[in-house]
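Take a look at the protein record below and flag anything odd:
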Amino acid sequence: MVVLTSPGALRPLHPLHAILLAFPLPLFLGALASDIAYRASFHIQWANFSSWLIAGGLFGGGFALLWALINLFRRGTASKGRLAVYFVVLLAMWGLGFVNALVHAKDAWATMPEGLYLSAITTLLALVAAWIGYSGFHRAGEVK
């Protein structure tokens, strides 16, 4: 059987990388929703939910970031520019997520409004990283 690929064929993520990349977006989005709920109700449990969701997003995102770093330096990988942008977006997501975790470690009342803003930016970066990652990368030796 012959498999035909077009010159611009995209190589999808490795399945394990795709699973790891699936964690940050919903967890950071849940943290944003929890921050919005805390801002509306001031029930301290919402701030606790945000802290745990951010920790989970950092855990999954950290492994996705490590995988992206390894892919960036692997031999034979084409489209280094796209891989570099993907890595930088993941790194920014993880870094701001870590700062967000530190902000959420404060007293619940002290987390507002910085925690809400950081959660929104981190969620947006997780969305961009997922968009880049799931859209695929060009194969080695092929033209864009």
Summary: The longest helix spans residues 44-73. The mean pLDDT is 88.
